[in-house]
Amino acid sequence: GAAIESYYRSALNALLNARLTGVRAELFPNMHVQVPIRVLYINGFKGLRSLIERTVNPDEYANPTAVRLTAAVAPGIAMTPVSSVLEACNAGHKNPEPLYRRSMRGVLPRGAREIIFGIGLNQLSDYFEERLMPICDNNQVAANAAGSLSAGVIAGYLSHVPHNLSTYKLMEPHRSYADLYRMFVDKSVPSAVDSAVHGWSPRIRNFTRAAFATLFPRGVSIRTAQIVGSFMILNGTITFLQRVEQKKIEQAVNGTVAQ
């Protein structure tokens, strides 16, 4: 599942980068690096969550809420260096630095993005699946797809601004984050909004433009589609494998009882 998803993610990432920067690039660059790294990345998210759930009991600590929050964000923080390599694979056309060096560009906003992605993939998907199960007539496959869709929309939207800043820093590492944010605002605000606020005071105009760009960022539909697709592919594959394993167990039990 992760190997298939790596191609989907790479293509959507290339399209999103083209939307953000105006420069088209190869859809599947460095796949010999991307595929194994993406498999490591996804297994890391799922594996770390499983490990934390088995070994950490928040109720044993003085502040269980803080422990639960730490457990939720830890996989995203841990997987940020891995994600950085994936992002760098899609940026060679704009940043000629060696892969290992450009992977360190934009790591701070990328860390925020990975935390949101991890919570969406792990906690939000399960949260929505559980609540949508009755609506889906207790069909696990349908509930899993609907839960992944819901979580993907939220995670894609919330993670898009950090993703944009990370991408711009990766493409143009010599520029400051403040400068890149201004560029992000200029690219996100349509001419109609600029015309509407043209006569306003500079402070209110700048605030309005920044708010519009943050709430309606450029390329958000592509980013959201990327996250939704990734969640559905990954969670769907896991659900399928769990069902296959459950059937094997049931067959083994029934065979033992029959004997």
Biggest sheet details: none
Return the string of H and E elements.
Answer: HHHHHHHHHHH
Indicate the structural class: mainly alpha
- β-strand percent reads under 5%
- Count of DSSP helices? 11
- State the total count of DSSP E strands: 0
Poorly predicted ranges: none
Helical percentage: over 70%
User: For the CA atoms, what is the radius of gyration?
Assistant: 21 Å
Q: What's the SSE blueprint?
A:
Elements: H1 2-21, H2 31-55, H3 64-89, H4 99-102, H5 107-132, H6 140-158, H7 160-171, H8 177-188, H9 191-196, H10 202-215, H11 220-258
Helix pairs in contact: 1-2, 1-11, 2-3, 3-5, 5-6, 5-7, 6-11, 7-8, 8-10
Explain the overall architecture.
This protein is an all-alpha fold. It has helices at 2-21, 31-55, 64-89, 99-102, 107-132, 140-158, 160-171, 177-188, 191-196, 202-215, 220-258. Helix content is 78%, strand content 0%. The mean pLDDT is 89. It is built from 11 helices and no strands. Helix 6 (140-158) runs antiparallel to helix 11 (220-258) and helix 7 packs across helix 8 (177-188).
